[in-house]
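[Meeting: bench + compute handoff]

Bench side (C.D.) handed over the final construct sequence. Compute side (W.E.) agreed to return the predicted structure before the next meeting so the bench team could plan truncations. Sequence as handed over:
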Amino acid sequence: MMGLLDDLAISPNGGHVSLSAPYRFVGARCRITLIVAASIFLLGSYLYYDYWYEDSAETFYKDPARQFKYGSTGGERLAGIPYGIFKALPVLCRDYLPRRADGGPGQGWESLGFIYEPGMDRPIGTSLRRSFGFERVALNCAACHTGTWRDDSNGESHIVLECQRKASISSH
């Protein structure tokens, strides 16, 4: 094909004109386009794989109360807060949290009304999922549908889960 074009390209003075320079430019553009397209395809493939196959939420199916408190509703898949930021916010913004009754600064998410259980590093009503390469935290139903009660003002706090309209699961 190149030989045919070279034969057809004749200069006004009767000599042949070299067409190799424009073809080299077009070839370089094609290679760059191919590299960019391959990079986009590989990035898209990675994100697709990570989203559909590596995406994993914590589940507690054998314990319905725990699943209600910490199970995923899917909110953290795209809109969740990165776990590191979730842990750092109450520390970095301590001066902006509500004060304790004695006037001291608020302590963590508990100062905003979140309830913690012994042995858990995040409050009831938060779910955790690994998505797009990092862990995310989001609120689930238990963030609003959980409360506590005490026998007296200094007594032990008991957690009450409002799972259904007329039924509750009590755990302590």
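W.E. noted at the follow-up: The chain has a mean pLDDT of 78. C.D. will use this when planning the next construct.
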